[in-house]
Write the structure tokens for this entry.
Amino acid sequence: MILSCDPGDTTGWVIWSDDGQELYSGQMEADEFIEHLAQPDRFPDLKTVVYEDFRLFRGRAQAQTGSRFKASQVIGALKMLSSMTKAKQVRQETGNRDLGYKFMGEKQPTNHKISHVTDAKAHGYYYLVRSGIRLTKQQESK
């Protein structure tokens, strides 16, 4: 099982089979997601955790004043889950998400409220293609 995530105030997630088929997906508030991750028995066959990294850039620092940095909290919980289940951690940059959308042959939703789950899917898809588990949609159609 592979878990891919887009951590944030609202966290998107996708669970994939080992052969790269999407099994479940959704998005929920960060605190609720962290509660799910705190129960490793929910993830008995977890092999890999893929997530978008979070970094605070100087130009965005003032806008983040007062933030509780939910993305960082979710990432910490993902790292703990990986440690408890012995799953491999795969940290990705935002650009990997963008390539994931290209690999899926889809565009990122313009409605940010619903984009978290599709961003998690794009991160997962990027990992699956780069790991040789799946082909891009363009390759599949040939």
User: Anything to note?
Assistant: The chain has a mean pLDDT of 89. The chain has one domain: 2-57+66-140. The radius of gyration is 15 Å. Residues 70-85 form the longest helix (16 residues).
